[in-house]
Amino acid sequence: MARRARSRTYGLTAVALAAGLVAAGCGGGSGSGNVELRYSWWGNADRAELMQQAIDLFEEQNPGITVTPTFSEYDSYWEKLSTQTAGGGMPDVLQMDFSYLREYADRGVLLDLNEQTGENLDTGDLLENFQTAGEIDGARYAVPIGGNVFALFHDPAAFEEAGAPAPEPGWSWEDYDEAVRAVTGSTGADPYGGSDYTNLIWVFELQLRQEGGQLFTEDGELGFDEQRLAEFWEQGESLREDDQVVPASKAVQALPVSPLGADLAASEFSWDNFLARFAEEAEAEVELSPVPTSDPDRLGQYLKPSLMLSASAGTEYRAEAATLIDFMINDPEVAEIFGGSRGIPATTTQREAAEFSGVDAAIAAYEDELLDDLQEMPPAPPAGAGALEAEFIRISEEVGFDRMTPEAAAAEFSAFAERTLNP
Amino acid sequence: MVSTALSHDSPPSAGRGAAERTRSAAPRRRRGRPDREGLAGYAFLSPWILGFLLLTMGPMLASLYLSFTDYNLFTAPEWVGLDNYRALFRDDQWLQSVRVTLVYVTVSVPLKLAGALAVAMLLVRPRRGQGFYRSAFYAPSLLGASVSVALVWRALFSDDAVVDRALSSVGIDTGGWVGNPDYALGLLILLAVWQFGAPMVIFLAGLKQVPRELYEAADVDGAGRLRKFGSITLPMISPVLFFNLLLETVNAFQVFTSSFVVSNGTGGPAGSTLFYTLYLYQQGFTQFRMGYASAMAWMLVLGAGLVAVLLFRLSRAWVYYSGDDGR
Fold first, then answer.
1. How far away is chain B from the Cα of A395, in angstroms, using its nearest Cα?
2. Would you place residue B288 in the very low, low, confident or very high pLDDT band (cuts 50, 70, 90)?
3. What contacts B154, CB < 8 A, 6 or more positions away?
4. Which of A356, B14, B278, B309 is the most buried (most CB within 10 A)?
5. A252 at the B interface (CB within 8 A)?
6. Does residue A185 sit in the same domain as residue A249?
7. Which residues of A390-410 are buried (b: 16+ CB within 10 A; e: fewer)?
8. Measured between CA atoms, how close is A365 to chain B, in angstroms?
């Protein structure tokens, strides 16, 4: 709490100072040879060290620009950013998440980077799947710096011991359920074969995409009907009733660690960058695996721009902000510094320059293998997607604890979505 | 933190009852002469008054205004009249948070006070090591509503942890409490009851004030322990009991930390620990619905204020102030 209060004080002080400077008529415009860019991002201390190296390199290449970085953990990052934005103290360059992009872009606080493209920002080298990432209605509010794919993780040793079939490309959801049952049966539920995947909105999205549907439409409405959502929640019913997957009470208790990380489950769905986390948390050796699908020709997976960079619409230094973004996505040395710590790089040059080791190498290999099967990414989620995600988790919990039938749950979610998307 | 309008310890009506009883005994001052003492008093008070106006009153009025608007932190607040308040009553989650908080208040406060009074009765008699025991019982409250304690409780009440095993060994098989919607709130209530140190200290002071001769007289008349407790101790400490009740009730309405830590900020499992302030925080700071959150905060002020007024009204029936027997 104290920290937040302090950061707010700093923010206010900064705003007051800036206002004072502007009033005094010394707003240093571009080219004055002394530009200070404020750059904020989320991450941990490890990433901060790498980030500082990259910033030093940038300042070396661009004399006259100083970069002042601030960073915090993911959750507090968004709390802080919202208050900064409200107070008019938004950083010049900031890390952006795909789920929040529209939330901010719709409110007109992000700079349309298209005006800088070709001058200070080069987006031509972005991977094919990322060419339009961050664009909304023809304006570009964010540029991706790294990507992730939604995937299945499993513990080969547990599967093998149970005699369960190993995951293979194109296997079906029924095959997966059977494998889960086999593992749970053979280990005596220690670990369970899997966790209840019906509480993950991303698995629902995966299934919808495999059927040619989508989670949100281009114009920000739900891309599915109540019936389909009820079916999704029903899928977990028999697994839960027979006690074949990790029960809700155990999963809740393990938070913030997921069942796979807590060694409660031998398989789980998550974004592929979680491999690093699982390698640290879980005792079992888990690996990235092919996802089950209802249509072997359509896996439903796509490269999601997990980390993006945006500039503030109110920044005084548009050119310099774009230069910094350009440097972060294109400079090969930056890729060497970060390796896979920012996800797999979003440009061809950086992807080739980055040297992956250990976990990063496994993620890169997984994505490379999928590259031809990856589909186009969905449109940016509507403002309020974050609230829907939270509501999805809450309602699936109710279903998981048997306090709500899938039908009632689907009805409640639809009503909530209606209120949230069309206030 | 969440700036609810409830940052003061005493409810708005706290001044009245006291004022009624202590009829102003100060001599009326003559007109026309500058009241220097008064001025000096205000001069000394000014830092507090300034702080109150700028840090409490101002934000409270701002949030009152915001509660009638649609405000998302980014764009200018938009006046929507009573829409936020209407939406509250259609919001299942809000109703759930009201339910959870009311259960918490009505169960945890009486239990906490009973525990505090019982321990204070034990500690009031002079015996060796008294100081040590007092400190020991007060220790949990020193740790207060801290995050670390909540983390420890979370660990104690997980599957296969200390509590689960202890209960299983005597044949009660509850499993972990943290992940069970039927038990999770009970765990937070227990945590609150365990922190009975502050009311205990106040009870101790109250118990020491009870004149010894009353007990001696009762002994002579052959009164038993229970009789003495009911006819002497309780009436004599009733003002202290009332004070504690009021304070703990208003505080219990504002509970936040324990659920935030134990449920990882979700209010789960299945909404069973969704305290009012936690839901307010979620609405304001994760969904950016600041207008809605302000309306929630004012409903909390109204609710807690109403309960406080009710307690004051009821107190006339059972609180005994020595010296006003004439009523």
1. 8
2. confident
3. B178, B261, B262
4. B278
5. yes
6. yes
7. ebbebbbbbbbbebbebeebb
8. 34
> Do A298 and A335 reside in the same domain of the chain?
no
Is the residue at A9 inside a domain?
Answer: no
Q: Residue B268 and residue A250: Cβ atoms within 8 Å?
A: no
Residues A57-67: pLDDT tens digits?
999 999 999 99
**With an 8 Å Cβ cutoff, is B310 touching chain A?**
no
Mark whether A191 and A129 lie in a shared domain.
no
What one-character DSSP code corresponds to residue A274? G
Q: Does B74 touch chain A (CB under 8 A)?
A: yes
What pLDDT digit, counting tens, does each position of A364-398 carry?
888 888 877 888 888 888 888 878 888 898 899 88
Report the residue from A85, A255, A256 with minimal CB separation from B74. A85
* Backbone Cα Rg of chain B: 24
* CA of A102 vs chain B CAs: smallest distance (Å): 13
User: Which chain A residue shows the shortest CA-CA distance from B87?
Assistant: A419
Of the residues A9, A399, A401, the best mutation for testing chain B's interface (the one with the most B CB atoms within 10 Å of its CB) is: A401
Is the CB of residue B11 less than 8 Å away from at least one CB of chain A?
A: no
A17, part of any domain: no
Same domain, A84 and A207: no
Tell me, yes or no, whether A280 and A414 share the same domain. yes
- What amino acid occupies position A103? E
pTM of the predicted structure, to 2 decimals = 0.77
User: Residue B141 corresponds to which amino acid?
Assistant: S
A49 is in which domain, residue-wise? 35-148+304-371
CB contact (8 A) between residue B73 and residue A82: yes
pLDDT tens string B247-268:
999 999 999 988 988 887 888 7
Q: In angstroms, rounded to a whole number, what is the distance separating the alpha carbons of residues A397 and A252?
A: 9
A166 assigned to some structural domain: yes
Q: What is the largest CA-CA distance in chain A?
A: 75
Instruction: Kindly state whether residues A286 and A314 are assigned to the same domain.
Output: no
Q: B3 touching A, CB under 8 A?
A: no
**Is the same domain home to A276 and A365?**
no
Domains of chain B in start order, with CATH, are 98-261 (1.10.3720.10)
Q: What is the domain-level CATH number for residue A349? A: 3.40.190.10
In DSSP terms, B70 is beta-bridged to B78
> Does some domain include residue A265?
yes
Q: What's the domain count of chain A?
A: 2
CB crowding A94-115: b at 16 or more within 10 Å, else e:
bbbbbbbbbbbbbbebbbbbee
Q: What percent of chain B is predicted at pLDDT more than 90? A: 39
A329: left (phi over 0), alpha (psi -120 to 50) or beta: alpha
Residues in chain A closer than 8 A to B93 (CB atoms): 394
DSSP state of B269: S
Cα dist from A273 to A215, A270, A303, B248, whole Å: 22, 8, 12, 47
Question: Is A415 in the B-facing interface, judged by CB distances under 8 Å?
Answer: no
Q: Is B265 exposed, middle or buried (0-12, 13-18, 19+ CB in 10 A)?
A: middle
Give B313→chain A minimum CA distance, Å. 37
| Closest C-alpha among A56, A24, A26 to residue A39 | A56
pLDDT band with cut points at 50, 70 and 90 for residue A293: very high
Q: What are phi and psi of A329, to 5 degrees?
A: -95, -25
Cβ contacts below 8 Å, chain A against chain B, sum to 71
- B221 token code pair: 């008349």
Query: How close B63 gets to chain A, by Cα (Å)?
Result: 15
**Residue ranges of E strands in A229-356:** 245-246, 267-271, 287-289, 303-311, 344-345
